[in-house]
Design goal:
The structure is a homodimer. Chain A is an alpha/beta fold and about 375 residues long. Chain A contains 10 helices and 16 strands. An 8-stranded mixed β-sheet of chain A has the order 1-4-8-5-11-12-15-16, sandwiched between helices. A two-stranded antiparallel sheet of chain A has the order 2-3. A two-stranded parallel ribbon of chain A has the order 6-7. In chain A, helix 2 links the parallel strand 11 and strand 12. At the A-B interface, helix 3, helix 4, helix 5, helix 6 and helix 7 of A face helix 3, helix 4, helix 5, helix 6 and helix 7 of B.
């Protein structure tokens, strides 16, 4: 039973805002003069401030990772399966911090925020961000919360990339790095899908060069298309087959029914697309996919991931899912191989799961067990 | 050296038009009163009219499968690698017929043709087509050309589906059925990609409900997006990686270059998209993808492909490619398994190839050898 009253739920949580006045120097060379980060916390920070866990979100995530915003809230946070009392990231032991990344559209400063220099929304002029910018802003949040060193930084997909960047940029401030369904850089195919998604948004006339907010409109069609493309890559072929097969949503395939017959998978995708376009900002989507595209763990280490990981000091857990074709197990094994070659302690689990990339959000028993066991180890040294 | 003068080229070819005045009854229940089919032929029909080969095209194909349209023509037909003197489909032995399918946009009657009832382009009102409609119209073309029985019907992808439909609908009129990189029906993932492609077109304001032709415009952006999505599924992850990797088309990934740096795969896709949108009709694209979606070999055989193939009388060659993830080898093995269970003679080759679905158009040595050997067998009984 999912409800705030469930003993395994963190219950009702309230997002908080941290305001920063010290300019943040960004990878693009610009400074962001001031910014807000919206975050939530679950559990209690211990006296030594040694039990803090940072959860980094993926492409379209936000700060609300666990619990409920009100008693009437029907849907818990996006990673509620794994965060809570008695859950793998056990809030009886850990103080969990989850934020909306800079550039996001769920409370933190981003393209839909007002640019203090113009008094208008930043829109497409919001500075481009890299994973390292997020990591730097998260380090500021850690300072703000009095956390010198994270017991662990955890993330799936783009979140896993941030966790790895943490290990490289702040080796003294992270004891464990948990990288789930991620990769050291995008493949050409990954880049291609992101390009289609962005082109869908950019070519929507309502996008208006990114200044749709001033016109009180949104590029709903483009954003919906972008989400549809993304969604296909989150699910495995098998998962789609078992979820929908060729079942019809309406009509029949007999002659004469053209136009009325509709496959379930098609109406499902359209629904997902339209839901997303009503709740996500197009400029943020472009910014986030670009950050993904440009992420390249070892670029400034002469393209040598062993040299890159040679700078880290933490232990690693790497997890992949058998049918994930967005970031396949092979991409995780590349991370593991580089870590081993760099002499870093690393555990690796490849989880059999039919659900594709989306598996990282689901309570798959072996996955939950692996994560729980590792988190016990993390907790033992807090 | 590719040129019309090459001794392995069919040389200069001239498309021809067959006009049909007898209404064609379509699967949707409507009749198409009159229609044209544009076709090309290569080689000579023998006295017994027993050496004719029908080549069926895939989603965006046309009649021009081999040779050149003029001495200045830089690019040969789409399957020139396999059709010509001394090539697998040897025009010294065979009379090859290649047509643009009904509903197409390369000469045959389709959505961009004038609807005689209104004097305006058919546009979105062109009747929906099924693979069986193409097969029926191709049978009319066979009558017109004096061909009672094809020595072989050959096709890749959607073309392979037509070849199978031929074997079911006209068992007496086909001696060999060659099915390359195809499937008995689309998977949910296949359906999903087609849906995204269609939504990209339908949501382009220039599509104007399909009546863009009367407005002298085209839904160029939507069609380009549709092609980009399709193109990703034609190439394997490996093929994309070796073709582009993460190489840059322009700019650098250093800080400050946002917007100017561009990955090659992205500009390549954009180029492919814009080329396609200038040469293909959007309503045809929608019609063709719907025909793909609705193709289901065994639907009226109680979903039993063994029962379906039990109606066939020809021999089969089935070919798949190892990295094809649009119609994977598994989909071809399903065809082969059903044929074996139905007691039909079938040869099967799974070709190791890095190029994904597109491999079926490429001169991969083992593929060419398999096809050549099988065609010798076809020729031995002409």
């Amino acid at each position: 039973m999912n409800s705030p009253a469930d003993s395994h739920s963190v219950g009702i949580v309230t997002p908080q805002v941290a305001h920063f006045d010290t300019p943040l120097h960004l990878a693009c060379g610009h400074d962001l003069p001031t910014y807000d980060l919206v975050y939530e916390t679950y559990g209690e920070l211990n006296d030594k401030h040694s039990n803090a866990i940072l959860v980094c979100h993926a492409l379209s995530g936000h700060a609300h990772a666990a619990g409920y915003h009100s008693v009437d809230d029907k849907k818990p946070g996006w990673w509620d399966e794994c965060i809570g009392p008695g859950k793998p990231i056990d809030t009886n032991n850990f103080f969990v911090v989850s934020l909306n990344n800079l550039g996001g559209c769920h409370g933190s400063t981003g393209p839909s925020s007002v640019n203090p220099a113009t008094g208008k929304p930043w829109g497409p002029d919001f500075p481009p961000l890299r994973a390292r910018d997020w990591v730097n802003s998260q380090a500021r949040l850690a300072d703000y919360l009095g956390i010198d060193c994270w017991a662990a930084v955890i993330g799936g997909s783009l979140g896993g990339m941030q966790a790895m960047r943490w290990a490289l940029e702040y080796p003294q401030r992270i004891r464990h790095c948990i990288v789930i369904a991620a990769a050291m850089k995008l493949s050409a195919q990954n880049l291609a899908f992101n390009e289609v998604a962005r082109q869908a948004i950019l070519s929507d006339p309502e996008y208006a060069g990114g200044h749709y907010q001033e016109r009180n409109t949104i590029p709903a069609q483009g954003l919906a298309l972008a989400r549809m493309v993304g969604h296909i890559t989150y699910l495995s072929d098998n998962a789609m087959a078992s979820k929908f097969g060729r079942d019809l949503h309406s009509g029949s395939l007999e002659q004469g029914d053209e136009g009325s017959a509709e496959f379930q998978v098609q109406s499902y995708l359209r629904y997902q697309g339209s839901q997303f376009s009503g709740s996500f900002d197009a400029n943020t989507y472009i910014l986030m996919t670009r950050a993904l595209d440009y992420f390249d763990l070892a670029r400034e280490y002469n393209d040598d991931p062993v040299a890159a990981f040679g700078h880290t000091l933490c232990s690693f857990l790497v997890i992949s899912f058998s049918t994930d074709w967005r970031f396949s197990p092979q991409r995780s094994r590349e991370i593991v191989d580089a870590l081993i070659a760099a002499g870093r302690p690393v555990s690796y689990a490849e989880i059999e799961a039919d659900e594709g990339h989306d598996a990282f959000l689901l309570p798959i028993p072996r996955y939950v067990n692996v994560l729980s066991a590792y988190m016990l180890r993390v907790g033992a040294h807090c």
